[in-house]
Amino acid sequence: MDLIDVVNEQDEVISSNARKKIHKLGLLHREIHVWFFDENKNIFFQKRGLLKNSPGLLDASVGGHVDSGEFYEEAAVREIKEEVGIKITQQDLFLLKKFKGFYQHNNKKNNFIRSIFIYKIPVTELKAQESSDKNGGFEKISLKDLSKIIKTTNFKFLKFILEDEIPIVLDYLNSN
């Protein structure tokens, strides 16, 4: 059973519970997203697998829940290792923003506080990922192309990614 900490509005742990129950009840919990970019400011989106909600749409490079007793940075390092097979340290991550959000899909209520990190990935580290039912691989989009794409269409992206996170990532990459 995946235990996840339940937090209050100040992001203080108040209990822990099973992931399924947290989403069924809409309990506030912690999540992370990590955005990969390379030296040319290409952004790597993970394509959602066929058995996931919103299959085929583009999502953050890596995402996941913060396990019970874990800190955001620890969860990000763990998720990168699990999803992509890259071993990094917490010092390799840069925190862009932490925010509270909520969305509902069918009976799943996702009520979260999410830390968004960015990671400059050496090109050699991101091996071609095999598509699977859980992970549809990665799509690389240049900073310039992404700015154009989001103005003309939103069909490729998860709605909350398009509205809440891509603007933050674009602001960071455009100013650095």
UniProtKB/TrEMBL annotation:
One of its GO terms (molecular function) is hydrolase activity. Residues 27-163 form the Nudix hydrolase domain. SUPFAM superfamilies: Nudix. PANTHER family: ISOPENTENYL-DIPHOSPHATE DELTA-ISOMERASE. Pfam families: NUDIX (PF00293). CDD domains: NUDIX_Hydrolase. It comes from Candidatus Nomurabacteria bacterium CG10_big_fil_rev_8_21_14_0_10_35_16. Keywords: Hydrolase. This is Nudix hydrolase domain-containing protein. Gene3D superfamilies: Nucleoside Triphosphate Pyrophosphohydrolase. Transmembrane segments: none annotated.
